[in-house]
């Protein structure tokens, strides 16, 4: 699931709209929207990675029906609070919403994502590419996690 060049008012708007889409497609339970918003408030997910800041919102496994990774490239960067802080703002250019069914998958997936985030050429392409199939291929080639729908 790839969403590009969508206009969002703020991170809550992004998470609400994406949650609705994920629910309509059968990937999450109705409880996902409130759970991901609440978790983001308590445990921010913005990452200050150069050259492009990102965010990786997620929530408890019990709100997920089918494992997935959703990539969102908003029209303008979206402010997220930096991970491990409660007041440092990160202007995220890409947002990766994670839906996992097994906690054991989380460490490997997060490592694959961090490896992706530091590949400047791949990140440049993800930010500029308009063809969703090309974006999908880039993600599949650079995220080693098996059994997840992008």
Automatic annotation (TrEMBL):
Q: Which CDD domains match?
A: PTS_IIA_fru
InterPro entries given for it?
PTrfase/Anion_transptr, PTS_EIIA_type-2_dom, PTS_SugarTrans_NitroReg
Q: Which UniProt keywords apply?
A: Sugar transport, Transport
Every copy of the PTS EIIA type-2 domain together lies at 1-142
* Pfam families attached to this UniProt entry: PTS_EIIA_2
Question: What is this protein's record name?
Answer: PTS sugar transporter subunit IIA
Which species does this protein come from?
A: Marinithermofilum abyssi
